[in-house]
């Protein structure tokens, strides 16, 4: 059974039980102050779990690409075993105040046994043992027992294992956060493979939550029924919800009866590409961890790049840079003779093939992503050997040396920490921070008195250029794709300069298409409407804001076209014309590269 078939069986199973399939949320979150990426299917559903009516009803289902590579959800350093991933698909179903445990648990068991063909004898379950005033989950115990799961395979665990909220245990939850007890299902690959005995955990007794890899968690039903109050207590929500999540990759591994998720059809073609380049059989390798890290990180990087992220030193771009550079180092350690560029290009193209017509377009996305990876690999390769030589020749690296590696060689701090940890050494993060602050102060001093780019003055011509910039931004996104994000701009009375994310030089045809689209909107003489509204409301309406932190809570939003059907909508603090017809003809005169993955256009008004 293929992974695509597993995904379809899951969606179809719940649709037949009255669920509506909803589209996945955007993977890359631009305007969420709490997180950079969607890390689970429930993330965009919090308002509805708290009682707000969902437009699609009370029963929902979907498959959600998810990234766990930063903050509390950072699994990057866990990757390398048989199951942890930084990017995966979360199969999810939700009851928003409709059905509860009595329906959810039997349905999930039916799906596993009847749809996927898993043996009931291979399944173990965990349930909540209770905590303070929250009762032990006896109801789930009785349901599982009635469904034929042996009592010795129904295990109670504490809040660290069988409680879910975005922040962790009940004590860690902030006011107004929701959470609830969980019931997890594990697939047991059996004692006969000797997985536990070959693992670092062999001295301890094996159980479903053991990290040895014998047991694989394939689904978690969260009974989302509590909310944290101001006085620190938990009270019941007005409605009892079910929030289920199960990893597609893990369910596919269970169907294959192979504990290695990297042998599923979602990964093994990537592993094969790495093996071919390295010149070694994966199954015979003494360093499977490196294969898995490269495969996972290149897949995650491809997902991020397809969604408009380019490597940089902050936020989303920093996560992408860290993933790629970690994969480069692991490639070097597997075989220092390998040029990562062709291999990474192959891995990016193969990832787009795996998800073609699901989340990606292999004909278009593979090339764009390959160019982004090529630039980043070539940039880092120049300093990799020097950096590794420094690390390998020193038993201990101080904070100053670590910062020098970070600043001059481009080594992420986490990567330096990881490489030094293999030698049993630690980096003093506080001292590193001090070195970083010293460097910032020097940069600030050196930069005083320099002109800062942006909107220049407010002459009539400059105001026309400013509105033209909004038209250019939207036209670039329409012609090249939604990965295009504004990266900077500068306007004076002679021209506009616009920086944007895109990995390759624009062709003459693309430039002509962008120009024609802008000028067609000028010819349409579209209205330019300014509204004052809360920033959050504007972002919910779809207004673009690639530097949201720059805007106050109450901000100006400029819409080009009709308010209910805009051509362009952006947060903006500048001045604009009242209609596009007064702008005149826009001509793109020049393009150039600013940095890896960022292009610059110069345009004139005629």
TrEMBL record:
<dbReference type="InterPro" id="IPR002318">
    <property type="entry name" value="Ala-tRNA-lgiase_IIc"/>
</dbReference>
<keyword id="KW-0694">RNA-binding</keyword>
<keyword id="KW-0648">Protein biosynthesis</keyword>
<keyword id="KW-0436">Ligase</keyword>
<dbReference type="GO" id="GO:0004813">
    <property type="term" value="F:alanine-tRNA ligase activity"/>
</dbReference>
<dbReference type="Pfam" id="PF01411">
    <property type="entry name" value="tRNA-synt_2c"/>
</dbReference>
<dbReference type="InterPro" id="IPR012947">
    <property type="entry name" value="tRNA_SAD"/>
</dbReference>
<dbReference type="Pfam" id="PF07973">
    <property type="entry name" value="tRNA_SAD"/>
</dbReference>
<keyword id="KW-0030">Aminoacyl-tRNA synthetase</keyword>
<feature type="domain" description="Alanyl-transfer RNA synthetases family profile">
    <location>
        <begin position="1"/>
        <end position="606"/>
    </location>
</feature>
<comment type="similarity">
    <text>Belongs to the class-II aminoacyl-tRNA synthetase family.</text>
</comment>
<dbReference type="InterPro" id="IPR045864">
    <property type="entry name" value="aa-tRNA-synth_II/BPL/LPL"/>
</dbReference>
<keyword id="KW-0547">Nucleotide-binding</keyword>
<dbReference type="InterPro" id="IPR018162">
    <property type="entry name" value="Ala-tRNA-ligase_IIc_anticod-bd"/>
</dbReference>
<keyword id="KW-0820">tRNA-binding</keyword>
<dbReference type="GO" id="GO:0005737">
    <property type="term" value="C:cytoplasm"/>
</dbReference>
<dbReference type="GO" id="GO:0006419">
    <property type="term" value="P:alanyl-tRNA aminoacylation"/>
</dbReference>
<dbReference type="GO" id="GO:0000049">
    <property type="term" value="F:tRNA binding"/>
</dbReference>
<dbReference type="GO" id="GO:0005524">
    <property type="term" value="F:ATP binding"/>
</dbReference>
<dbReference type="InterPro" id="IPR018164">
    <property type="entry name" value="Ala-tRNA-synth_IIc_N"/>
</dbReference>
<dbReference type="InterPro" id="IPR018165">
    <property type="entry name" value="Ala-tRNA-synth_IIc_core"/>
</dbReference>
<dbReference type="InterPro" id="IPR050058">
    <property type="entry name" value="Ala-tRNA_ligase"/>
</dbReference>
<protein>
    <recommendedName>
        <fullName>alanine--tRNA ligase</fullName>
        <ecNumber>6.1.1.7</ecNumber>
    </recommendedName>
</protein>
<dbReference type="GO" id="GO:0002161">
    <property type="term" value="F:aminoacyl-tRNA deacylase activity"/>
</dbReference>
<dbReference type="InterPro" id="IPR018163">
    <property type="entry name" value="Thr/Ala-tRNA-synth_IIc_edit"/>
</dbReference>
<keyword id="KW-0067">ATP-binding</keyword>
